[in-house]
Structures are given as C-alpha cells and as structure tokens.
Write a structure and sequence with these properties.
This protein is of the alpha/beta class. It has one domain: Rossmann fold, CATH 3.40.50. It is built from 3 helices and 7 strands, in the order αββαββββαβ. Strands 2-4-5-6 form a 4-stranded mixed sheet. Strand 4 and strand 5 form a beta hairpin. The radius of gyration is 22 Å and the shape is elongated.
Length: 202
C-alpha cells in the first residue's frame, strides 16, 4: 500500500506523463520514387501543372518542406515518362489536405491522370486517392504537429503511389509500354537495381 504522501502525488505524476508529446518517427531523406520502375506512356508528352485545389480551413501543409501537392507532383515526375509520338498525359492534383483536428492529424491525397489523343480529346483517365491519420493529445507542441504532418504525408503518399500504379496497370493498359530498366530516356537502376512495389490483385 502506498504511503499517503505518495498516493497524493501519484495523480500529478500520471498527469505529467500523459502531457508529454508522443514520439513520432519520420523517415529520413527526401521524398522520391526514382527507385521504382517507371510507368512509360505511349504519348508524346507528360504534363504536370503546378496547381493545387484551394486549401481547407486549418490546413498546414504549406508549412512542410515539401507540401502535399508538390509531393504528389514529385511522384508523377519520378514515375511517368512519355515514350510515344502523339498525344499527351496530364497529371492533376485533386486533393492535398493536411489538417489538425480535435483528434489528431489527417492527410488526404488525391490525383488524376488524363490521356488525350492527337486531336486533344480525352481518351482515357484514372483517379487515385489515399489517406493517413494519427491520433494526438488535445495539445501538442508545434514541432510535434509538424513531425506528425510529415509522417502522415509520407505514409499517405506511399499508399497513393501503390494505388496510382494499380489503377494505371488496370485501366490504362493500352497506353502503357513495357518497361526495360536502363532503356534510353529512363533513369538507370541504382546500386541495388530497380525495385517493383507490390500491388494488390485486380
């Protein structure tokens, strides 16, 4: 049985422990996808406009080193390559949300890829979306919130990349050209070779 003095101090000790900000691990290194097999499209050009949807109230994505919209465009630039002679592909950011709410931090990402023919009409498209969230105490330090935002962005971005490739291989098969590592105009494999990210079955 605890002495009376220890029993009186115990609630304050627990409160102090509970008020500590959680440890949040953020992967090191810049965001990038060049280590994965590229998606080679049978079009003459790939366009990635620098345009984001309007930010939502409480959105703090712009405070990150690489905001959500820019991170998705980085994914597109790393993975999409034009190897055809006509037509074009246009990658668009449709959702780039990173907010702190009453329960934690939420990151919601969305993108779209449109394939246009030689005459300019749309002849194919895909959409992909992904989310990641973490529960946080009601009050955390700004630095903790930033780390949580960075961690959730990277997690959602990895999920988006998998979903985007899955949708491309399922719905844009006529415009995909078989990838040959090290082919002309494509990034060469790194020291450990080119990796393929596992995809769920169709």
């Amino acid at each position: 049985m605890l002495p009376r003095r220890s029993a009186l101090l115990l609630p304050f000790t627990l409160l102090a422990c509970a008020s500590r900000d959680p440890e949040i691990a953020v992967p090191g290194g810049p965001i990038g996808f060049r280590h994965l097999l590229p998606l080679r499209l049978n079009v003459a050009e790939v366009m990635v406009p620098e345009q984001d949807p309007p930010p939502a109230p409480g959105d703090f994505g712009a405070s990150l080193v690489l905001p959500p919209g820019a991170a998705m465009r980085q994914m597109a630039q790393d993975r999409l390559f034009a190897v055809g002679s006509t037509g074009r592909a246009v990658f668009s950011v449709t959702q780039a949300l990173l907010i702190r709410d009453n329960t934690g931090v939420l990151c919601a990402l969305g993108c779209r890829l449109d394939i246009a023919g030689a005459e300019g009409g749309r002849i194919g498209f895909i959409e992909a979306a992904a989310r990641a969230n973490i529960t946080l105490p009601g009050s955390v330090a700004p630095a903790t919130r930033q780390r949580a935002g960075e961690a959730m962005l990277r997690q959602a971005l990895q999920r988006l990349n998998v979903e985007f490739e899955f949708q491309a291989k399922r719905n844009l098969r006529p415009w995909l050209v078989e990838t040959t590592p090290g082919a002309s105009g494509l990034p060469a494999p790194g020291p450990s070779g080119v990796e393929r990210e596992a995809l769920p079955p169709a």
